[in-house]
Amino acid sequence: MGAVRTPRERWIEEGLRALADGGPDAVRVEALAKRLGVTKGGFYGYFADRDALLAAMLDTWERESTDEVIERVEREGGDPKSKIHRAGMLTFSDDRLLPIDLAVRDWARRDEAVAARMRRVDNRRMDLLREMISTFCPDPDEVEARSVLAFCAAIGPHFLAADLARPRAEVLGRVADLLLDRPRKPAAPPEDR
Questions:
Q1: How far is 94 from 139, CA to CA, in rounded Å?
Q2: Quick check: 193 pLDDT over 60?
Q3: Among residues 21, 153, 154, which one has the least CA distance to residue 91?
Q4: Is the model's pTM score more than 0.70?
């Protein structure tokens, strides 16, 4: 009986973990093999070289963060405002996708091919926002402004170091309410002292 080969998807997944942890320079065949507990020989049965792995990783990230998110949002249904919220939560609050997205975003600052991919992903996300926001906002200029603000509100908190005057979750919830024309939620009553 021959040795069991490490599946291609495990190499990709481990590469994505390394990318999220340390950027593209952390994606090294020998280090991945060690993390997987295998020799690096099996790697070459799936990939010609490290660049082929990086491309496969980006393909996986792009599919999971756009196609699969959009498919799930559509499958689970709901009104446009809940779809926007769900898409944002699936993408920018997910413990797996978010670190990869942030790492790819950083990588795109130094690599034109990755930047082109990032732009394609962000354009799909913006298209979804425009489509959903236009269902309750008739002004095309306002649709574009709200879409940009919603996208910035989804990404920005991961880069914002400033202290906020109110709890972060409360502020971000209010931002979403404003962008999506939702009524203001009543403030929680003060706790008994």
A1: 32
A2: no
A3: 154
A4: yes
Q: How far is CA 55 from CA 12, 48, 59, 104, in A?
A: 10, 11, 6, 12
Q: What is the pLDDT of residues 68-88, one digit of tens each?
A: 999 999 999 999 999 999 999
d(CA 79, CA 165): 32
Q: What confidence category does residue 190 fall into, taking pLDDT thresholds of 50, 70 and 90? A: low
Q: For residues 135 and 143, is the Cβ–Cβ distance under 8 A?
A: no
* CA–CA gap between residue 16 and residue 60 (Å, rounded): 9
Domain 8-179, what architecture? Answer: Orthogonal Bundle (1.10)
Closest CA to 154 of 112, 75, 110, 101: 101
In the 8-state DSSP scheme, what is residue 49? S
The stretches of the chain forming alpha helices (DSSP H) are 8-22, 29-36, 50-62, 68-76, 80-92, 97-108, 112-133, 140-155, 168-179
User: Average pLDDT over the chain, rounded to whole?
Assistant: 92
Rounded Cα distance between 121 and 127, Å, is 10
Cα(190)–Cα(156) distance, integer angstroms: 29
Can you tell me the distance from the alpha carbon of 12 to that of 19, in angstroms, rounded to the nearest whole number?
10
